[in-house]
Write a structure and sequence with these properties.
Layout: E1 2-6, E2 13-17, E3 21-23, E4 32-35, E5 39-43, H1 49-56, H2 59-62, H3 72-89, E6 93-98, E7 103-113, E8 116-123, H4 132-146, E9 152-157, H5 162-170, E10 174-181, E11 184-192
């Protein structure tokens, strides 16, 4: 794959080879676009609100996160926060789409929480147990470490969220004790960028 950069003094695009990553330059921002054999990962867009709201309206999806299904309005506000993070920090939770057929199936990415970069994901129930979570997390973590140069990312999960814990383990994150989220004890994993 390649990095695609626009020369600001020209309409021409130049392509530079960087394994597995495609980043399009728009002005001074560098929105990411990652692809795998089965997935496309990109920043969220306003058009994603409806399909994202359908994912988080499922109480089973939210059971080990907030415990409650989210409304359309809550999903819209969340995606506004995600878009703001991307604009201000250069990273966010990224939309995860199937390549064929093109369909939003969830998110995977970064969020600043209490001074640490949280690495999290969420998927629609009908896409569970297909390896999409691990596939996306592996690529997004690599992007965060190699391109964004994030020195430390943290993932947490409730102990009963074994699917998320398996993803953390499969992508090489290291157990780092316990934490808390929403007043509940969580298991904490970290990934450090090699100096």
């Amino acid at each position: 794959m390649y990095v695609t950069c626009a020369n600001q003094n020209s309409a021409k695009l130049s392509r530079i080879r960087i394994p597995k990553y495609e980043i399009s330059r728009m002005g001074s921002a560098y929105p990411m676009l990652l692809t795998t054999d089965r997935l496309t990962l990109r920043p969220f867009q306003e058009a994603d609100v409806t399909p994202y709201s359908e994912i988080v309206a499922d109480p089973e999806v939210m059971r080990l996160i907030t415990g409650e299904a989210e409304t359309f309005e809550a999903a819209r506000r969340y995606l506004e926060e995600v878009l703001r993070s991307e604009a201000e920090r250069g990273y966010s939770r990224y939309a995860v789409l199937l390549r064929e057929p093109e369909e939003l199936i969830g998110f995977c990415g970064f969020k600043l929480i209490d001074g640490e970069v949280d690495f999290g994901w969420r998927y629609g129930k009908r896409h569970w147990n297909n390896g999409y979570g691990t596939e996306a997390a592996r690529e997004v973590l690599k992007y965060g470490q190699e391109i964004l140069q994030l020195p430390l990312v943290v993932s947490v999960a409730l102990p009963e969220n074994t699917a998320s814990i398996r993803i953390m383990q499969k992508i090489g994150m290291q157990r780092d004790g316990f934490g808390s989220w929403g007043g509940k004890q969580t298991i904490r994993y970290v990934a450090r960028t090699a100096a």
